[in-house]
Amino acid sequence: MDWDDFAHWGTHISNWAADYHKTLAQRPVRAQTAPGEIAAQLPPTPPEQGEAMAHILTDFEQIVMPGMTHWQHPRFFAYFPANAAPPSMLAEMLVTTIAAQCMLWQTSPAATEVETVMVDWLRQAMGLPDGYTGVIQDSASSATLSAVLTMRERATGFTGNRDGVSGKGHLRIYCSDQVHSSIDRACWVAGIGQDNLVKIGTTGPTHGIDPAALEAAILADKAAGYTPAGIVAITGGTGIGACDDLLAVSRIAQRYGLYTHLDAAWAGSAMICPEFRTQFWRGAETYDSLVFNPHKWLGAQFDCSVQFLADPQPQLDTLKIEPEYLKTTGAQVTNFSEWTIPLGRRFRALKIWFLLRAYGLEGLRDRLRNHVTWAAEVATAIEQIEGFEICTGPILSLFSFRCPGDDAMQQRLVDALNDDGRIYLTQGMFDGRKIIRFQVGQFDTTRDDVMLAAEVIRDVWENLT
Ligand SMILES: Cc1ncc(COP(=O)(O)O)c(C=O)c1O
């Protein structure tokens, strides 16, 4: 392909992209294909000769597109969103075009410097104090793993990387039973082990960790000869949106000298609105490490996860490695690959820059506030369907409900809704019972889209019973 062909097909694809988004609401939200159906249409062996782009794109439309679930669909209410605002997509196109690998300052100074400033813009937007710095990672899972590794190294006098973790005693990490599975995984990978991730029960209307039980667990562990290493708090848990009392948790951490990490992967975006900070985020500024995903609710195309750090040094002492081939000379510069596990890095900050400039914080706040308002309205409408109950009321824009019947019936309703295709929902567990989760957060969703969901649920339910 020469660059004239590239320009031709680039224009074709960008027109296709605009049409796709303009007609997206007419498609079923979740892919309606059976397992293996897409793979069966692909040749089992790679082509020996190159093929025409027109042919490749025809196959893309005919084979691949039917197997896509539409994450930008305005009636996607499943999981959490992975919003890609149009300006952030354009930024990604530019990043893809330049195709730089931005591991060190000198491998693209602009990438490092825009990243530094974007992290600081977001810090200000989220009301975090001056002095917090940070880094953009691919995912919250990577940021949490970095924080858990830092907890491990800090608790072992920074000897774990050198000696390995066997013989270091039992390090213990604490969290509530509402945290995301990425915390468990981080403990597996860091050599802490599942049994040393102590999950504490929750209390209160936001289902936050029980501070008294947390402190009792730390004291019991110390008495038993274990080494408490850190606490992972949550704002906006995946299941039902659980939010810890951040101040209570960090006071306990301070009492026992523990490193703290706050997972706000989803709910963090809402913290650009001062009123949600007052409601859910008091004390966030006392955490050593905080992660939130602009690629979830805010609108920066996947992937884009910001980890704020009160002091980057412990994480650098944990992760920095500098072989000769990565050494740089000259001025004192930041090499962000020293802050993270992967060496290679994409220029993720550009899409934050485009996003924040195109909408302004006020434009983004309007969207988030609407989502929270509409979630409460649709929860009320669902509660009015005969026999339906709201299991956990909205925390920001996430709530859960149940239809009449047992757990199997909940799953039948979820599956029937997703086969119907007009909306997309997923299930969860709360208090030992299956629940149906509902989150409102699509970038371009409207009140009509959200309220239509209650009608679709009533309709599909009536056909099911
Ligand atoms: C609360 C929470 N934390 C962490 C994660 C993991 O995020 P990522 O996919 O960026 O690793 C999720 C994913 O939905 C989440 O909901």
What does this structure look like?
With 465 residues, this protein is an alpha/beta fold. Helix 7 (181-189) links the parallel strand 2 and strand 3 (197-200). It starts with a helix and ends with a helix. It has helices spanning 3-22, 53-64, 86-98, 109-125, 140-155, 160-163, 181-189, 211-223, 246-256, 274-280, 294-298, 313-319, 349-383, 407-420, 447-464, and strands at 133-137, 171-176, 197-200, 202-203, 208-209, 227-234, 259-263, 289-292, 305-309, 389-395, 398-402, 426-430, 433-439. It folds into 2 domains: 3-82, dopa decarboxylase, N-terminal domain; 101-346, Type I PLP-dependent aspartate aminotransferase-like (Major domain) (Aspartate Aminotransferase, domain 2), CATH 3.40.640. Strands 1-9-8-7-6-2-3 form a 7-stranded mixed beta sheet, sandwiched between helices. It binds pyridoxal-5'-phosphate. Residues 80, 139-141, 180, 182, 236-238, 263, 265-266, 293, 305 line the site of pyridoxal-5'-phosphate (PLP).
Summarize it:
With 465 residues, the chain is α/β, with parallel strands linked by helices.
- Determine the oligomeric state from the structure: single chain
Helix content: 40-55%
Poorly predicted runs: none
Largest sheet: 7 strands, mixed
Which fold name fills CATH's third level, the topology of the largest domain? Answer: Aspartate Aminotransferase, domain 2
What is the strand arrangement across the widest sheet?
Answer: 1-9-8-7-6-2-3
Shape: globular
Ligands and ions found: pyridoxal-5'-phosphate
Q: Work out the radius of gyration.
A: 24 Å
**How many β-strands, per DSSP?**
13
Count of the separate structural domains: 2
Q: SS-based structural class?
A: alpha/beta
CATH superfamily of the largest domain: Type I PLP-dependent aspartate aminotransferase-like (Major domain)
Look at the structure and give the CATH class of the largest domain: Alpha Beta
